[in-house]
Amino acid sequence: MTVDAARRRTIWQIALLAAGFVVLVAISVASILLVSKTREDSSWVVHTVEVENQISTVLLEVRRAESATRGHLLTLQQQYLDEYDAAVAKVAPAINKLAAITTDNAVQIENSKRLREVVDARLATLARSIDLAKQNNIPRATALQSDANRATTNQVADVANAMRAEEDRLFQIRTATADRSQLLAAIVTTSGSALVLLLAGISIYLIRQSANAREKAEQQLRDNNANLESTVETRTADLREANEEIQRFAYIVSHDLRSPLVNIMGFTSELEELRTDIFSRIARYSRAAATELSLPVPVGESDPGEAPELQAEDKQLSQDFSEALGFIKSSIGKMDRLITAILNLTREGRRDFHPVPIETRELIETIISSVAHQASESNTQIRVEPLPNIVSDRLALEQIFSNLIDNALKYLTPGIPGDIQIKGRYKLGFAVFEVTDNGRGIDPKDHKRIFDLFRRAGIQDRQGQGIGLAHVRALVRRMGGTINVTSELHKGSTFTVTLPTQWNFGTQGKVE
Amino acid sequence: MSLPVKIVMIEDDEGHARLIERNIRRSGVNNEIIPFTNGTDAVKYLFGSDGSGVNHKDQALLILLDLNLPDMTGIDILKRIKENEHLKYAPVVVLTTTDDEQEIRRCYELGCNVYITKPVNYDNFAHAIRQLGLFFSVIKVSPVQP
Question: Between chains, do A263 and B121 touch, taking CB under 8 Å as contact?
Answer without folding.
Answer: no
